[in-house]
Amino acid sequence: MTEETIGVVGGGIVGLAVARELTRRRPGTRVVVLEREDRLAAHQTGHNSGVVHAGLYYKPGSLKAELCTRGRALVRDYCAEHHLPYDECGKLVVAVDRDELARFETLEGTARRNGVPDLRRVDGAAIAEIEPHASGVAALHSPHTAITDYVAIAERMGADIETAGGRILLSTEVTGVRRVPGGIDVVCGEDVHLVDRLVVCGGLESDRLAEVVGAPATPRIVPFRGEYMVVAAAKQELVRGMIYPVPDPRYPFLGVHFTRRVDGTLEVGPNAFLALSRQAYGRLSVSPRDAARTLAWPGFWRFAGAHWRTGLTELSGVLSKRAYMRTAQRYVPAIGVADVRRRGLGLRAQAVGRDGSLVDDFVIEQDDRITSVRNAPSPAATSSMAIAEHVVDRLDRGR
């Protein structure tokens, strides 16, 4: 029997986790990872908060809820096995006033249904015991929410893949896909790779790659940018772990928050505003191609029409550091605009339906020999190894 060849498009943490899982579960399979950039983890994986989520936010019974719970344990064990950074510094989700308590109660119910380990509700006095400089009337404490280095994890996965006999081809952009007798031709410029099956984990380019493989045009990716601030060294110890707001259930974004990093720094952010480039990380970065694609999508205009007030609020934080920190300072009053500087941007690949709805859950589609991860925003990094198990299980069922 001829050995099967499986191609994986995307060298972010989800694509690498899938490739690694394939080498583990199918030792005789030839696995090849095709990555457009000249390094692994170049986009979402390398520009996030480094948080290992415990599952507080996600609709019970959804793929996000299931795979985040499983993924957190897998990431924890993988970091322990390979001596990678992993710090359970814990998280507080804080209601700063009584107007937020209805949303807070709903969030608590969701977190408990998801089985968030050792979750505890605390009052204002107990908040100060956990985070002495935080302010609020109530909070959920998740002691097992952790921080890690996802780039280090991705690079370790890449080493695992190559040690197991897989190949990683960098600077290799997929420009076409053709179904041919006996397999699939994956066109990368002048090179063609023949594979038996293909898994597409394109992140910010997942909709474009879906069109390349002949999948439906919807949902479409609308990229959102998130800007981070770093807190001055003199005040970095004012936050011990993570401090988050109670999220607005209408949006998949968690709001500006305080997060420790494994290098010891303290960050504030990210906010969320429309990005005009899917690849560049400058504050003024614009790609005419990317901007035109977003503006041509009817779903974007329907979303913008429904949420323009929130968009204006987010825009004020983009334009003004003072406005940005006005929101954050509600949670830690002692850290103000003079105590932070801009650090950089992240980009989020958010799938949007034609009707303007934000696609909240992970979306994984399978069409014959091609599997496409169409929507994998946060907590995709936390869930990456569990997403990989899910994808390979589906491949196994389709053999």
Structural write-up:
It is a single chain. The protein is an alpha+beta fold. It has three domains: 5-45 and 151-218 and 361-397, FAD/NAD(P)-binding domain (3-Layer(bba) Sandwich); 91-143, no CATH class; 220-358, D-Amino Acid Oxidase, Chain A, domain 2, CATH 3.30.9. Helix content is 32%, strand content 26%. Strands 5, 6, 7, 14, 15, 16, 17, 18 and 19 form a nine-stranded mixed β-sheet that branches. A six-stranded mixed β-sheet has the order 9-2-1-13-21-20, sandwiched between helices. A hairpin with a 2-residue loop joins strand 11 (183-188) and strand 12 (191-195). The protein is globular, with a radius of gyration of 21 Å.
Strand composition percent: 25-35%
| Contiguous uncertain segments of 5+ residues | none
Mean pLDDT: 93
Integer tally of domains: 3
Q: CATH superfamily name of the largest domain?
A: FAD/NAD(P)-binding domain
Main sheet record? 9 strands, mixed
Shape: globular
Q: Over the alpha carbons, how many angstroms does the gyration radius reach?
A: 21 Å
Kindly identify the CATH topology of the largest domain.
FAD/NAD(P)-binding domain
Query: With helices defined by DSSP (H or I, 4 residues minimum), what is the helix count?
Result: 11
CATH class categorisation of the largest domain:
Alpha Beta
Q: Structural class given helices, strands, pairing?
A: alpha+beta
